[in-house]
Amino acid sequence: MTAQSGGAVLVPEGPHMRHVLGHFCTGIAVITAHDGNRPIGFTCQSVTSVSLDPPYISFCPAATSTSWPLIRAVGTLCVNILAAEQRDVCTRFATRGDDKFSGVNWKPGANGAPTVDGTLASIEADIEFEHAAGDHSIVVARVTGLWAHEERRPLLFYRGGYGAFEGTPDA
Questions:
Q1: Single pTM value for the model
Q2: How many CB atoms lie within 10 A of CB 46?
């Protein structure tokens, strides 16, 4: 546990850090690519806007991910921001296996990466930078195309559980 003693802050332990950071509500996305033979994807909750000029986003895949190295090799991807009704899609892409797209409707985006049907928004991007960061990587990608579906609500993750807004937020 983190504690202060005489002004010094102790390094947080993993479970305590997970508990505290779990109080920050995040959206959930599925990062996808297509290698010319098959679609590839994984669930990711650490997606953020980085810069408007140039247009950069960032996400953080786990170092243990088997899908991320395949997507990295492609170089282009789509960040599919999940809608409240897509908890099953989130779960499907959070597991290991080759059959993640089975039963999931998608179409190729302008860059060839799968855009999953029913999402809240889709962001196509080219990978620009990757930085090792402990048990994850920090990936910065240049946005090449994006669109939103205004009438949908986001799938949210908070304190280990899933949820959504009760109503449509005011614009």
A1: 0.85
A2: 16
DSSP-derived 3-state class of residue 68: helix
Interval 34-61 mean pLDDT: 95
Q: Please list, in sequence order, all residues whose beta carbon lies within 8 angstroms of the beta carbon of residue 89, skipping any fewer than 6 positions away.
A: 30, 82, 104, 116, 118
**Distance from the Cα of residue 95 to its chain's centroid:** 14
Sign of CA dihedral 107, 40, 29, 109: negative
Please give the Cα distance from 54 to 96 (Å, whole number). 34
CA dihedral 73, 110, 113, 68 (to 10 degrees): 40
**pLDDT the model gives residue 72:** 97
Beta-carbon contacts of 143 under 8 Å, excluding residues fewer than 6 positions away, are 55, 56, 57, 123, 124, 125
Q: Hey, how many other C-beta atoms are within 10 angstroms of the C-beta on 68?
A: 23
Q: Virtual CA dihedral for 145, 75, 111, 123, nearest 10 degrees?
A: -30
CA separation for the pair 90, 28 (Å, rounded): 7
